What we know:
Elements: H1 2-7, H2 14-22, H3 24-29, H4 33-58, E1 81-85, H5 104-114, E2 118-122, H6 123-126, E3 142-146, H7 148-163, H8 172-176, H9 179-193, E4 202-205, E5 210-213, E6 218-222, H10 224-233
Antiparallel strand pairs: 1-6, 2-3, 4-5
Bound molecules: 2-acetamido-2-deoxy-beta-D-glucopyranose (3 copies).
Family: Belongs to the ustYa family.
Transmembrane segments: 36-56
Protein name: Tat pathway signal sequence
Amino acid sequence: xxxxxxxxxxxxxxxxxxxxxxxxxxxxxxxxxxxxxxxxxxxxxxxxxxxxxxxxxxxxxxxxxxxxxxxxxxxxxxxxxxxxxxxxxxxxxxxxxxxxxxxxxxxxxxxxxxxxxxxxxxxxxxxxxxxxxxxxxxxxxxxxxxxxxxxxxxxxxxxxxxxxxxxxxxxxxxxxxxxxxxxxxxxxxxxxxxxxxxxxxxxxxxxxxxxxxxxxxxxxxxxxxxxxxxxxxxxxxxxxxxxxxxxxxxxxxxxxx
Length: 257
Ligand SMILES: *[C@@H]1O[C@H](CO)[C@@H](O)[C@H](O)[C@H]1NC(C)=O
Ligand SMILES: *[C@@H]1O[C@H](CO)[C@@H](O)[C@H](O)[C@H]1NC(C)=O
Ligand SMILES: *[C@@H]1O[C@H](CO)[C@@H](O)[C@H](O)[C@H]1NC(C)=O
């Protein structure tokens, strides 16, 4: 009982300090106000450090505590954050990128964004995916998969070639089937799934005597090059033969989707 009351010695009122001093037993044991504060602060620091460490441990590997994924992807380990200054890409600013235009070099630049990125996923990781995927024929213990970013880029390229169909007459069929419509809606969903929160700015332009919106802001990005390098290193060697049935004994953790 005595020990308990000691814990709650009020810290501020002189009256109670007097009371504490007046009891010899309490006087001997009562820690000074400063010491109590010191101990409380130390305990709080330790608690915060432990909580921080737990939060870090529980976040997905490869992620800092500020970015979390609700679902597993084998590419989480390749995430690296970087800042990038966007290019306006407007012809009049002379800042065209190598993905603008319709030359063979431009076509190759687009191809390089997503070619050779079909993944070879180890069975243990295939079991952790939110959706079931298919075993690779002749490559025991590996499953096929593709990161959606490469599919989105492929789709954007399809749209690009359809827009410039004079330069890509063979793409005309895309207009007729559902492919372009599918591509547009796929990119819409992807943009809405990962909203880019970079703030676009407006600045005064004296020549134009107007406030002008800009397209050259600095963005916080996941390094695309890192993800693509990782995908190339994890890519399937042979093209996927879609006509072969493969028996699959994978025990799927998330039910059968
Ligand atoms: C990807 O496309 C580029 C451009 O066409 C080509 O040079 C490169 O060899 C391709 N890479 C693979 C692995 O197919
Ligand atoms: C202002 O506008 C003019 C005309 O569009 C452009 O040439 C110039 O680069 C702009 N200046 C700035 C600081 O953005
Ligand atoms: C993936 O899983 C979700 C959630 O259960 C399901 O709605 C969707 O149809 C699945 N898709 C495929 C291709 O398995």
